[in-house]
Amino acid sequence: MPNMSKTRNEMPTQAPDVRNKNFQEVALGYSEEQAIDEAQRCLNCKHKPCVNGCPVQINIPAFIQEIGKQNYEGAYQVISLSSSLPAVCGRVCPQEVQCEKYCVRGIKGESVGIGRLERFAADWHNAHPVEKIERPQLNGHKVAVVGSGPAGLTCAGDLAKKGYEVTIYEALHLAGGVLVYGIPEFRLPKAIVQKEIDTLQDLGVTVNTNVVIGRSISIEELMKENGYEAVFIGSGAGLPRFMNVPGENLNGVYSANEFLTRINLMKSYQEHSTTPIMPFKKVAVVGGGNVAMDAARCAKRLGAEDVYIVYRRSEEELPARREEVEHAKEEGIIFKLLNNPTEVLPNEKRFVGGMKCIQMELGEPDASGRRKPVEKPGSEFVLDVDCVIVAIGTSPNPLIKATTDGLATEKWGGIIVNPETGQTSIEGVYAGGDAVTGAATVILAMGAGKTAAKGIDEYIQSKKN
Amino acid sequence: MYKIIKKKILNPTVTLMDVEAPLVARKAEPGQFIILRVDAEGERIPLTVADFDREKGTVTIIFQIVGATTEKLNHLNEGDSILDFVGPLGVASHTEGLKKVAVVGGGVGCAIAYPIAKKLHSQGAEVHSIVGFRNKDLLILEDEFKKASSRYFVMTDDGSYGEKGLVTDALKKLLDAGERYDEVITIGPLIMMKFVSKLTKEYGVKTVVSMNPVMVDGTGMCGGCRLTVGGEVKFACVDGPDFDGHEVDYDEAMARAAMYKDFERHAYEETCNLFKQEVN
Ligand SMILES: Cc1cc2nc3c(=O)[nH]c(=O)nc-3n(C[C@H](O)[C@H](O)[C@H](O)COP(=O)(O)OP(=O)(O)OC[C@H]3O[C@@H](n4cnc5c(N)ncnc54)[C@H](O)[C@@H]3O)c2cc1C
Ligand code: SF4
Ligand code: FES
Predict the structure, then answer these.
(1) Nearest in space to A34 (alpha carbons), one of A76, A57, A5
(2) What is the ipTM, given to two decimal places?
(3) A390-410 residue pLDDT tens
(4) Which helix (H) or strand (E) holds B58?
(5) Pocket test for ligand 1, best of A172, A290, A401 (most atoms within 8 A of CB)
(6) DSSP 8-state symbol, A13
(7) pTM greater than the 0.90 cutoff
(8) Are B33 and B21 in contact (CB under 8 A)?
(9) Which of B11, B33, B13, B12 is nearest to B24 (CA)?
C-alpha cells in the first residue's frame, strides 16, 4: 500500500542561524526510515513520466522500488546504469524542473523527493563500499580528456571501463572542475568529489593536474606526438562575464568565479590558508542563478552582515534551484528583486563605496519567453555595500579554440558537435558539457560525457576494422 | 611535485631557482609566466619565466621575497620540491622584426626583462639595456645583461653604483642624443612603467610593458587579473602579460595591486614568525 501523504519527507538540515556561520553541509540526508517512507510514496507508474524529465533517463521508479525493499545497493546499481555521479547529482540537480516536475504525485501534493532518494542511495553506497573495483583489461588504445569537471570525469570513467588507457589533463592543481572550485562545501562536500576521482584512479585513469591544454600541450600534439587516438574536450564555461558598468574594476568587485575560487578551491576561509579574502561587511551579489546563491551564502558565512541578491527580474524567473533560494532566504540573504546595477561607486581609497541601481518592471516576453525587464525612469537609488560580486554568467574559455586549428565554434564560443556522438569538426576530437552548451548543469555535462565516450569508442573500434 | 635543481641567492631579497618542469620548459618563451603553489595551504602566485633549458627540462624563476608565499618559497632548498607549477601561461613577447630596442628594467623586473633582451640579442637586434635599482646591493644579472646588450646602463637611487638617478633619466638622455628605437620594452614597478611610458609617448616610441597583477588561476577563469587597456577590460593572464604601455590605466592597476596589502603584511609577518620559531 503506497504512502498517500501529500507532503514529502522533509530533508533534515542544519538550523539556518547555525549553518550560516559554518561551511559544513546544509542538508544532512534522509535517515533509512525517512527514505523508506518516502520511497513508499512512489506509485511505480507504468508510463514513468518522471523518467522523461531526467536528462539521462535514470529508471527512477525502479531505483525507488529497491529503496522500498531496503536493497539500497541495488538502488544505487539501477542509478549507475545511467548516471556516473549519483552522489553529486542527488545534491545539485534542479529536480524541480526535471524528474520531479513530471511526477504524478506532484499533481495533488508534493512530488516524490526523487533527488533526496537518489542522494540517499548514493550516500549509502559510499558508506558501505563493496569489494575493490577490478581494473578492466586494457584494450591498447589511448584517449586524452581535457578538463576534470563532470563531463570529463564521466567520459574518462566510461572509457576506462571499456579498457581504454585514459589520461585527464586539468589546468588547475585539483581535479573536479566547477564541483571543486565553484560549488561550495556546504552544498557539495569536496570529499564526495574526491571519492569519484579516487574511483576513476582505481579504474586506471591517470589524472595530470597543472597542465593547460593549448599552452603546456596542444590538442594536435596530444594526438600526433603523445599517441592519443582521440581527445575529449570538457573544458567548461569558465570565462566570467562582467556588467560593463562604470566602477567595475574597483577593489572589492569580484567575478563570482574569483570569489568562489578563493573560498572553495583556495580555502581562504580556513585559518591557515594564505589566499586572501577580505572581511567585507555589506555585499551585493548581482545575478539570480545557483552561482549567485552560492556566492551570497559564502559571503554570509565569511561574516558579512548584510548580503543582497540583486536581480533584474522577479522571484519567478530566478534561475537558481528552488531549494537554494529557500535556503538562502532562511540564512538571511536579502533579495532585491527587479533591480539592476548601473554603476559601482568608489570610496576615497578606490574600494567599493556603494552600488547604484535602478528599479525594473517586467514588460513583454522576450525571445527566451521570459518577460523582459525594463527600467523604471527616475527610480535610481544607491545600495550601501562595500563589495560587489558579479554572477551574471560565464562563457566558454577561448584558449582551446584559439590554439586548435580547425575547431569550429559558435560565435559566442561554444564548440560545435554532432549531438549523437559528441564529435567536433576535427576527426578524433570530441567535446561536451559547458564547453559546448555554455553554462548549464552537472547532469547535462555528465550526459554529454557519456555520449562522447560512446562516440569515441565507436570511432576507435571502427578504425580498427 | 617539481624539484628544485638549483638555488642561487642573487641579493638579500632576490632568489633564483631552476625548477624541474619539463612540460613547461618544452614550450616556454620569454614574456610568459608560470603559476606555482608552494604547499597545500599556499596561494597560487604568478612568476615570470626568467630562463629555460629545454634539454634539461628546467625553468628558471627569479623572485623577490615580498610576502608569505615568496618567503616560504625561499625557505626551500636544492632537492626540495614545489607542490604545483603550471605553465607556460600568457602570450610570449613579440620580438620578431625588431632591429633596435631599449630594454628598461627596474628591480626584480630585470629578471623578466633579461630573457627578452637575450632573445632579441640572439636574433641579431641591437639591444640597449637600462636597469635601475635602489642601491648597489640589490643589483642583479649584471653579467647576463652585459652579454645580451650592446650598451648597458645601471642607475641607482643613491648613486652607489652606476649613475645616480632614475631609469627614465638614462632613457631620456639616449632619446635626446638621437637614439631611435623600434620599441622600448619596460618591466618593473608600476610607477616606473607609468613614467617610462609617459616619456616615450612624448617621443612617439612604441612601448611595451609587462603587467603582473594579482592572479588566481592564470587561465582566464577568475578575472582577478583584469586591467583597463585602451578603455577596454583585459585579462592580463590570457591577453597579456605584455600590453601597449601608452594605453594601460596605471592608476587603476596600482590601486588593484594594493588591494590585499594589509592582509599580505599580516600573513607575511605570521610566516616570518613561524620561521623564526623554527630556528629558535
Ligand atoms: C557556483 C556554481 C554553482 C553551480 N550550481 C549548480 C547546481 O546546483 N546544479 C547544477 O546542475 N549545476 C550547477 N552549476 C553548473 C555546473 O557546475 C556546470 O554546468 C558543470 O560543472 C559543467 O561541467 P563541465 O565538465 O562541462 O565543466 P567544468 O565543471 O567547468 O570543468 C571544466 C574543467 O576544465 C578545466 N579546463 C579548462 N580549460 C582547460 C585547458 N585548456 N586545459 C586543461 N583543463 C582545462 C577547468 O579548469 C575545469 O576544471 C554550477 C556552476 C557554478 C559555477
Ligand atoms: S512519476 Fe512520481 S510516482 Fe510516478 S514513478 Fe515517477 S517518481 Fe514514482
Ligand atoms: S588570473 Fe584569473 S583570469 Fe587571469
Answers:
(1) A5
(2) 0.89
(3) 999 999 999 999 999 999 999
(4) strand B58-64
(5) A290
(6) B
(7) yes
(8) no
(9) B33
Is residue A407 within 8 A of residue A429, CB to CB? The reply is yes
- Segment B233-245 mean pLDDT: 94
* Residue-level pLDDT at B261: 75
d(CA A58, CA A72): 16
Integer Cα distance of A134 and A321 in angstroms: 37
Give the residues across from B245 on adjacent strands. Answer: none
For residue A237, what are the β-bridge partners? none
Residues having CB closer than 6 A to ligand 2 are: A 42-45, 48-50, 60-61, 103-105, 112, 114
CA A191/CA A421 separation, integer angstroms: 32
Contact B43, B87 (CB under 8 A): no
**CA dist., res. A346 & res. A142, Å (int):** 54
DSSP state of B42: P
**Burial tier of A220 (Cβ tally within 10 Å: 0-12, 13-18, 19+):** middle
B91 in contact with A at a CB cutoff of 8 Å? no
Measured between beta carbons, the chain B residues lying within 8 angstroms of A276 are 43, 260, 263-264, 267
A169 touches chain B (CB under 8 A): no
Query: Cβ(B16)–Cβ(B62) under 8 Å?
Result: yes
Ligand 2 atom 1, closest CA: A103
Instruction: Tell me, yes or no, if B75 comes closer than 8 A to chain A by beta carbon.
Output: no
The residue type at A128 = H
Spatial contact of B169 and B195, defined as CB atoms under 8 Å apart? no
Residue contact A238–B24, C-beta within 8 A? no
Mean pLDDT of chain A: 93
Residue that the C-alpha cell 553541509 belongs to: A25
* Ordered domains of chain B (ranges, CATH): 2-89 (2.40.30.10), 93-203 (3.40.50.80)
Beta bridge mates, B126: B100
Closest to B87 (Cα-Cα) out of B231, B188, B215: B215
Q: Where are the alpha helices (DSSP H) in B134-260?
A: 142-148, 167-176, 190-203, 236-239, 250-257
Picking from B24, B216, B220, the nearest residue to A399 by CB comes out as B220
